[in-house]
């Protein structure tokens, strides 16, 4: 089985698990080209079974938690670890981003990405899965004073970030 078939099978298996745990989120698919180094990273992450996880965390007032990264404000995001279930990964990523705990409430979207090597047209497409979860803050105010975390009450902020 080649890298394309293996990665596609892993994505399908993870989607089945996601469906069993959270129901069927909306699923979209996209394809894009990356440079050789990014392609090799995608192949390696696929081999390890890693998924990309994003978390939309709301506080008791409905504001969305954003963290600073690479000079911009973004939702907490990261990759699963080997043998880590999706809910545990989402909670860990939020804790790492802001030092707060959350309760995962739903999986709202999954994106299957076909990653192509823009430097080598003969390289097979590798497939990756990214899942967006919603969550609620479970511990008080969190790090509202931390400069690396902010809470945005603008409901349009989420649409722009995922």
TrEMBL record:
Residues 52-151 form the Nudix hydrolase domain. The keyword Hydrolase applies. Keywords: Hydrolase. PANTHER family: GDP-MANNOSE MANNOSYL HYDROLASE (PTHR43046), MUTT_NUDIX FAMILY PROTEIN (PTHR43046:SF14). Its cofactor is Mg(2+). The keyword Hydrolase applies. It holds the Pfam family NUDIX. One of its GO terms (molecular function) is hydrolase activity. This is Nudix hydrolase domain-containing protein. SUPFAM superfamilies: Nudix (SSF55811).
